[in-house]
Amino acid sequence: MMLPKKLSCFLLVCICLFSCIALRAQKKDSINKSLVKDSSKLDFVAKMQAFAKRSSKKSADEFDADKATIAQIKTFDEIQRTMQKAKIYVNGKLDTTDTKNELKKIEEDFAVAGDGIFTDRGSSQTFRNLTATSKILSQLLNKVNARKLKLDARQQELNNFRYQLDSLLSVPALFKFPADSVTLMKYLQKIKVIAYETSPIDTSLKMASNNIQNLLNQVNMTAFKLESSLEEIESYQKDMAGQTYKREFGNLWKSPGNYRPFEEILYFSKTKGLLTLTFYAGNNTGKLILLVLLIATSFIYLRSLKNIYLENNLLKTDFDGQLVLRYPLLSAMLIIISLFQFFFVSPPFILNVIFWSISCICLSIIFRKYISKYWMRVWLIMVVVFLIAALGNLILQASRIERWGMLITSILGVIVGLITILKGHREELREKWIVWSIAFMALLELISTLANLFGRYNLAKTLFIGGFLNVVIAILFLWTVRLINEGLFLAFNVYSGQDKKLFYLNFERVGKRAPLLFYILLAVGWAILLGRNFPAFDYLLKPFQNFFTQERTLGDYTFSINNLVLFIAIMSIAVIVSKIVSFFASDGHLPDNKENKNERQGIGSWLLLVRISILCIGLFLAVAAAGIPVDRITIVLGALGVGIGFGLQTLVNNLVSGLIIAFEKPVNVGDIVDVDGQGGKMKSIGFRSSVISTWDGADVVMPNGDLLNAHLINWSLGGNRKRISILIGIAYDADLEKCRQLLTEILNNDQRISKNPGPVVQFEQFSNSSIDLRIYFWTKHIGDTSATRSDLIIAIVAAFKANGIAIPFPQQDIHLHHPDQQ
């Protein structure tokens, strides 16, 4: 076993030093003998001084030796620990096979992606092939860069281990040798053992470092090749964008100059398409999960809305104005997919085809027996030709078979479009905008036919898919807007409270026709989806992307418009979700029965906490997504603390009071309360203030601080019961026991009066005109108190009249005394 160079040299030096020390010891003994002889001649003081010097030197030497021994032991222990860590790291974290396999897989994917561009390129490039290859190479480059970062980190760890070992073997304390020869021999033996133990670790570290470096070289070469290929593709795309009308092939009726088997083109197109889809889905798994969750949430909302309409017999048999409730799951899928697809940045065309196909299937089922047969046939024809065009667009390399297929399909599109425009049943159309979309489709397909005939393949293919896509997307978006508007309108109709704060939307302006803003957004989305098929779209869009992605500096903080938009979007979603929770927890849209009422009150008691939790989670996610530094938040909180100290005490008091109400729950939504003489029902408990609906019909907005500090009377906490007393005066000659029996019978016969505790009849006092008695009773519900009191007064008066018991009015006898007449 070979020793490390440093330890071998060190051991050789130690042996030489040991020999020198032995010679020096012999010389020192002879000198000491001579000194002993000379010392006898000195006087006593000189002897003591010499003894003191010798003792002092000996003590210092022993102290230095002890320090060196401690340092040597510590260094040896540190060397042992470092070697153990290095051994574990080398054996456990240097799986170079995984990296080699990944590089091999990247090379295979690169070969697939480069088909039709770098190999078997034919006579011309195609826009869709360049786009697909660019997406694949970008993902491969991301994989290579990620692997490079891991290898760099491993190389750094290996270098750190070697540096630590070299540093430990260079500690000065290791070169301080014991004066005793026996101890010195043991020390040298220990160094020899350390040298033998360090040697294999040092060799393993060197070999691992060399292997990592070799892999890094391969990774760097692969990254360079991918970057060069991407630059080449970008050059092709730039040339293609600037030469949109350039002829790539000969006329369609001429023989092809280059031929490649169509089956081979299909195979590589399928392989490349699935590869792009796999890469994109893996990088956007979170968005796909969020898409599914949004569909589930929308489905639950629409199904709940449909159940409300069914329970109240409000659902129409023909679903006129209620189409969104016909199939809640399909409506939710259509709405969410149509809107959420814009959150996928630069998706592969195959993913868009999947989204559009699902949406078309959903809308076709929703249309069944709702629209006229004529327009249903037109829609199905448009869907079929669109799917044919979409599948043709997935073929990434030009071929004569595909060109003939494009020609036949585009001519069919022109014919169908002209027939629909000229002989269509326009009066049956529910959305008149569709006619304009069909006319635009016929125009694009006509130009595509001419371009295809005369060899403008890329232009023909772009217009070919764009024409059919334009119709399908327009119809999908028009009905998506219509269904969204119907959902809002139907929710407004069944929400009896008509609270405009529900979604921060004015529902009174929601009608059977969607607002103009919805159609503007529809047109923008239609233009974006249509423009993605044109080569020049990315270059026209690049300035806008740079505007949003460019990093800007404000002081020490670096941000981009994308981060700010993301922050606002996440917070907006959190607010909307909290409002949706308010909608489902509110009681204005549910049947008014006791079971549901108790359930709603249970939900309402936790509503504020749930909303606060949603907003806090939204704020945390928004801050994390926007990349806002924590120290900046600390500064903002500090500034906010100063603001609180000067002028925000009242606001903070109300906010904190809201939290206390949410946790302690002295009052819940739906409770019957009295606050400073204001009686009513708790309508809502907000962050800063709460709303009480009074018995007079007004809504009192009370800050949470005042609500918490006031003498709050909560009748609902006691079971919504209330004790009532009625004072009655009867004549002095009345039969008191009979009065008691009559009153007890009247009270027991009223079902609104609680029997436990039962009613009580008490005689109180002799007043001026009557004997006063008072009846006490509990009503089962506080809402029945006024009606019960009124009905009891009527019953008591009738019973007293029937039994001859008088209720005297206040009277006074006046006696006149005339002394003169006596």
Q: Could you give a short description of this structure?
A:
The chain is of the alpha+beta class and 822 residues long. It has 4 domains: 5-133 and 145-235, no CATH class; 262-549, no CATH class; 639-719, Roll (SH3 type barrels); 721-802, 2-Layer Sandwich (Alpha-Beta Plaits), CATH 3.30.70. The chain has helices spanning 5-39, 44-92, 96-113, 127-169, 181-242, 262-283, 285-311, 328-340, 349-367, 373-393, 400-423, 433-453, 457-494, 516-531, 537-549, 561-585, 594-626, 630-646, 649-664, 704-709, 736-749, 785-802, and strands spanning 551-554, 557-560, 672-675, 678-685, 689-694, 699-703, 712-714, 722-730, 760-766, 771-779.
Characterization of the model:
The protein has 822 residues and is of the alpha+beta class. It has four domains: 5-133 and 145-235, no CATH class; 262-549, no CATH class; 639-719, Roll (SH3 type barrels); 721-802, Alpha-Beta Plaits, CATH 3.30.70. Helix content is 67%, strand content 7%. It is built from 22 helices and ten strands. The strands form three sheets. The protein has a five-stranded antiparallel beta sheet with strand order 6-5-4-3-7. A hairpin with a 2-residue loop joins β3 (672-675) and β4. α2 (44-92) runs antiparallel to α4 (127-169). The radius of gyration is 46 Å and the shape is flat. The protein starts with a helix and ends in a 20-residue tail after the last helix. 25% of the residues are buried. Mean pLDDT is 77; it is low at 496-511 and 587-605.
